[in-house]
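[Meeting: bench + compute handoff]

Bench side (C.D.) handed over the final construct sequence. Compute side (W.E.) agreed to return the predicted structure before the next meeting so the bench team could plan truncations. Sequence as handed over:
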Amino acid sequence: MKGFAMLKINEVGWIEKERPHCGPMDAIVRPLAVSPCTSDVHTVYEGAIGERTNLILGHEAVGEVVETGSLVKDFKKGDTVIIPAITPDWGAVESQMGFSQHSGCMLCGWKFSNIKDGVFAEFFHVNEADGNMALLPKNVSIEEGVMLSDMVPTGFHGADNAKVSYGETVIVIGIGPVGLMAVAGANLRGAARIFAVGSREICQDAARKYGATDIINYKQGDIVKQIQEANNKKPVDKVIIAGGGLEAFEQALKLVRPGGIISNVNYLGSGDHIKINRLDWGVGMVHISIIGGLMPGGRKNMEYLSNLLKYKKLDVGILLTHRFKGFGFIEKGLALMKDKPRDLIKPVVTI
C-alpha cells in the first residue's frame, strides 16, 4: 500500500509498505477523510519525539471499515467510523487508573504516527476496535467528523482539566484549531468572559463565534499587560494554553488567581525547560495547579462529542478553511500546517 511518511527528521515523502495485519480484536480501515495537524509538523520538523524512520504520518481520520477481527462485536465491513487520535490499550493498568492515554507507558495511548504507522495510507490498523472506533452519525459529514478525532477532544480536554465553571473568566492562549475548541469548550462549560489570544484575523473571528468576549493580539504588546488592563488588574480564574511557546507558562502564572488552574494542551515541540517564576507561584504555596493533558481517546468520548454535532450544539465547519479531494493532497495539507498562511485554520482531505 501507499502512504505519506516521515522518512527522517525534516524529511517527508511517499513510500510503499505492506498492508497492516488485522488481529482478532482489531480492524483495518480505509480513510475517507483525513486532516494534517500541527502535531505532525512538530514531529517531523522539530524532531519533538525523536527520530522516526519511514513512519506513516497522520492521526485524524474518518474511514470505512474493510476488515474486522474475529472478536470484534460492534462493527462490520462497510461501516463509516470516526477514529480518535488516541487509541489506548484498555486492559492496561494505567487505563484502569483513569489514564488510558498513557496505557503501557507515557503517551503510549498515542499510537498513530508515534509508535506505529498513522492514517495517511491506503489502509491503517486500529487496535481494540470495539473500544477505539465510533460510528459517524448520518447527519454529520466525513469532513466534520475528522475534527472529532483530535481538534474537538483536545480543546475540550483543556477546558475540562481547567474545571471551567459558570461565570468564570478564562484565558485561552493560542487560537489555532485546538485553541478555538478550547474557547468553545470553555463557553459550553459556562465561562462568562473568555480572552482569546491570537494574531490571525480569521482565527480571531472564529474565536468570537465560539464564545470569546475579548481578543488579545500578542503582536500588539505584552499579553499580560493587555489582559490586566482589560480586566481591571484582577486575576482570572483559569488559563488554557493551546499554543505559543514555553513563555506561555510564565505569562499564565502572572494572570491566574490563587487557587486557579493552568491547563496545557499544547504540544511543546521544542525547548528543554519550562520556567516557573518563584514569586509568581507564591514561593510554591499559592495553590495554583498546573496540569498538562493528552486528550482522551476511545469510543465513548467520540460518541459523546459526535452528539454535539448531531444535535447542532457545535459547528466545526468554521474550522475547515481548506478542502482538498484526492489522496495526493495530503502533502499539500501538511505544508499548509507548517507554513500557516493567514487564511488557514484547518485543512481536510477527502479521499
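W.E. noted at the follow-up: The chain has eleven helices and 16 strands. C.D. will use this when planning the next construct.
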